Structure formats: C-alpha cells, structure tokens
Amino acid sequence: MVSGLLTTKLQYSLILTDWVFLTRFCFLTEFGRLDFRFRYPKSRCCQNILLYFDDSSQWPAVYKRPEKNCYQKEAVLRPENNQVINLTTRYTWSGCVVREVLSCVGGRSFRSVRERWWYIALSKCGGDGLQLEYEMKLTNGQSFWTQHFSADEFGILETDITFLIIFSMVFLLSCYFAYNLKGRQLLHTTYKMFMTAAGVEVLSLLFHCVYWGLYAREGVGNGSLKILGKLLFSVSFLVFLLMLILLGKGFTVTRARISHSGSVKLSIYMTVYTITYVILFIYEAEFFDPGEVLYAYDSPAGYGLMGLQLVAYVWFCYAVLVSLKHYPEKQPFYVPFFTTYTLWFFAVPVMALIANFGIPRWAREKIVNGIQLGIHLYAHIVFLVITRPSAANKNFPYHVRTSQIGILLSSPKGGEGAESFPHHAYGNSSFLGDSQPNFTELFSIQSVSVNCKCLCIFEFILYRI
C-alpha cells in the first residue's frame, strides 16, 4: 500500500519537476495487480501515470538522465501495452470523474515472462507543475504470504519464522549447556558472550517476524520494528566476532585475561567497526535511492565493513597461531575452530560480491536474507558443538575452572605470567560422571602455591560432605 500527497512547481533549472518518480514494485508473472485512486484539481489537468519496467530500454533509459526532458521520458513507453494512464475523463478506462476535483479510481493487471520490477512515475509535460493525492495498492495474488509482498520479498517471512524457531532452539540448548558448565565451574566469559549473541539474534528475528507479519496483513509495516531488528542483528554479529577474536587470542582457553595493549587494540577495532555499521545504517536510510534496486553492501560503508572483516580474519589467524605455538596441546580445539571459522570470515564478503554481481535484482533480497541467516546459524551451531559439555567431546576448550582463575591472578607470582593458564594435558576429564571424584582437577593449577592447593582440597571435602 502506497499513499501520499505530491505538490511541485515547475522551476526552470536543471531539475525538471514535470516528471517525478512515485514508487516501485516487483510483480509476479500472472498475478500482479495495481489498484489506484488519484485526485487532483481540474486546474492541474492533465496528468499521466507512467508504468515503466526494468528493461534497459525503459526505466534505466530515463531515470537519472537529466539530458532527457519529460517528452523524451514518455516516448520510451508503449501505449499499446497500457503503460500510460491518462488521468482525464476522455479515457473511460482511467476511471476518472469530475466533481470539484478530478477523481480517478481503477486498476491494472501485469503480465510478463518473469518476475519484473515496475516503476511508477507521474508526468505533466509542458505544464506548470504537479499536484496529486494518490493511493495505490500493489499486490501479487490473494495469498497471505504473497499478496502485499513485492516478488523479491517472497519467502522472507517464512524464512525468518523458520530461523527464529531454529535459533530459539540453539539458544535454549546453550542455556542447558551453560547450566551444566556452571555446575562444573567452567562457565567462562566467552561462553556467556556466545549465549548473548544467540539471544540477541533471537530478538532480532522476532522483531523482523512481527514487522513482516504486520506487512503481510495490512500492506504497511512498522518501520521502527525493522530498524530495531537490523540493529539487533548487527549487535549479535559484533558480539560473536569479538568472541571469536578473544578465543583466538586464548582468552579463557590459555589465559585469564588479555594484555593491556591487546585490550586497547580490541577496543579501538570494535569501536571503528561499530561506527562503520552506524554509517551504513545512516547511508542506507538517507542516501539509498528508492528508484534503484540497491543492496546495503553496495555502498562505501558496505565496502568498509568487508575490509574490516578481512582485517579481523588476519588478526584471528595471527592470534590462533600464537596460541598454538605456546599451547600445542590445544590443537584438538584450535584446529577445527580455525578451519570452520575461516569459512565464516570469508562467507560475508563472498556473499556481498555475489549479491552485487551474481543475483538478479528481482530475486536479490529474498536470496540474500536466507544466505545471511544461514551463515549466522552455521557459526552458532559450530560453536555449540565444539563447546558442548560432554565426555565424548574431544574438542572442548576449557580446562581451568572459573574459581581457579581468581587464584591465578592473585597468586604471589601475579606478574605478567599470571594471566596465562598452566599447561594441561588435553582431555575431557572434567566430564567424568558426578558420582566419581575427579582428583586430577584438584591439582590442575601447577603454578599455584601449596596453600592454594590445600584450599582446593578443603573445598572438595566440603563438597563431598
């Protein structure tokens, strides 16, 4: 549903205001329909509604072509295809009647060999400006899932609902795993970050589903819900990216904290990434031309995000290699971790390039939406699998309990070396049955003083009592 009030005055300058773009819509091959109601004063007669399609000889040939005047822009249309709706009483099929104003009510059906973008414009060549009150209902069939949606949006609501269910299951499963990890004092900050990313992703999809559900029912969505959904989607991505870099640097896996210089670098990088995302949102809202079918990453800010993603990957590679150099026993975790997330780091830039150059514009939005959500789901499921608290999991990364980290940092040797965990024979002894006392874990911090070991033994005895 599109409505509005348009008033312009002809100004003899580089801008010709006797021809103006109204809206665009991607119609199905057989079920596309436009129902309209136009009103304008008799003194502004006579105005035309122009229907362009996405062929190179039509819309691209006239839009943003200041060298062409109004008559030349009308000349590319084919009247025999009913591409011109003359808003006067001389044409009965325009549905116009004269009262105090010209009121035109009618409709058009669209037929084409494939889904096609149609662009609707208003003209009054050689006149003194335009004035029009309009209401247009653009539909594709009568189904709840297609009626109000442009053909490039088909399937987005169903896809978002499906991924909402799957991500909700991932989040609930992560909560269950977190409960088990907390019972074993292995619920580290990085796992909490993963849970945060998954939970925010669920909220993002929930807002998107509500937005598209309202749009499917009424033909008009609440734009604030869509913006909020996009913001939450970006927050989830940034939290997950930060978690990957921290794990690559060994945080909670081989060390208790990141060095001061490393923390500063991370803070600067994430600030730049966040600002770039904000710029992308502003650029999309303020500078994207509705007369063109554009993709968010097809912009300076979008290319900046892809560049930052590649910088993050280089940093990730270096961090993992350094961690493996000092802790080779962590290979069972870091090798699959590095391999699977290398694919993830490259998936976003590759998807952006394919979307810009390889996907037809009339199918881009729905395909990109599915691919983007699939990439996020892949990242979350992989992490859920490699960190599952199971005795059969040979890739489990954590071997130092959360209660022992404080002892490490406050030990008499609490200099620079205190931030690093002691070396640990890689295994999953933390997940022996609760009915069996696991004495190995009592002495897993070799760098701690005898007093600290005694404290751990005392805590264990109290626990068994």
Automatic annotation (TrEMBL):
Transmembrane segments: 161-181, 193-215, 227-246, 266-283, 303-321, 333-355, 367-386
Topology term for the membrane: Multi-pass membrane protein
Domain of life: Eukaryota
Keywords on record: Glycoprotein, Membrane, Transmembrane, Transmembrane helix
GO biological process assignments: G protein-coupled receptor signaling pathway; response to pheromone
Residues covered by the GPR180-like N-terminal domain: 17-134
UniProt GO cellular component terms: membrane
Broad class of where this protein is predominantly found: membrane
Compartments where found: Membrane
GPR180/TMEM145 transmembrane domain ranges (all copies): 163-383
InterPro entries, A to Z: GPR180-like_N, GPR180/TMEM145, GPR180/TMEM145_TM
Protein name (record): Intimal thickness related receptor IRP domain-containing protein
Origin species: Astatotilapia calliptera (Eastern happy)
Gene it is expressed from: TMEM145
